[in-house]
Specification:
This protein is mostly helical and 170 residues long. Among the domains are: 33 residues; 66 residues, DNA polymerase, domain 1, CATH 1.10.150.320. The protein is 55% helix and 2% strand. It has a two-stranded parallel sheet. Helix 1 packs across helix 2.
Length: 170
């Protein structure tokens, strides 16, 4: 143990670092000696013959390449853009403002849940909160009072403010 302290002081290592270094060296030497001792006992690995699978793969690959070269796939030229658009129900020529006008204006004091859900940005929960607010506080006195309802901020309000009204404000 005294020798370890002398070595540690000489090379600037701590005693623990020297112990770790010696452990690594001993394990390394043990590994080398084990490999040398068991060198004669290594079993020869099994060799597999893959020639049959390789020939099957190559024959299929060659047949496929021949069929591509001879144009056996006679597919007609298809206008894929038109095919995709045929399955799309969206009307790209309509304006989103036209859809909003189809909703019609909604009276905040008389609207039911389905009328409120029809407003842009209003879902089931928000519509329920609007009705709860109306029951608790009475009728809305102005359109902007809807901003007091949880879940409705200024951004959402801007989306539907032209679609709502209060009976007195028409």
């Amino acid at each position: 143990m005294n020798k370890l302290i002398k070595i540690a002081n000489r090379y600037g290592f701590t005693e623990t670092e020297i112990k770790v270094f010696l452990f690594v060296v001993v394990m390394f030497l043990f590994g080398i000696s084990y490999k040398i001792m068991s060198a004669g006992h290594i079993e020869k690995s099994i060799e597999f013959d893959y020639s049959e699978e390789d020939s099957t793969f190559n024959s299929i690959k060659n047949k496929f390449a021949e069929s591509l070269d001879s144009n056996k796939f006679n597919t007609p030229n298809i206008d894929y853009k038109q095919e995709v658009l045929d399955f799309n129900d969206a009307d790209f020529n309509s304006n989103s403002k036209a859809k909003e006008k189809k909703i019609g204006r909604v009276n905040l004091n008389d609207a039911n849940i389905s009328q409120l859900i029809a407003l842009p940005g209003i879902g089931q929960k928000t519509a329920e909160r609007i009705i709860e607010y109306r029951k608790a506080r009475g009728k809305f006195s102005s359109k902007s009072e809807i901003l007091n309802v949880k879940g409705i901020g200024s951004v959402k309000y801007e989306k539907f403010k032209d679609l709502i009204f209060i009976e007195n404000e028409k």
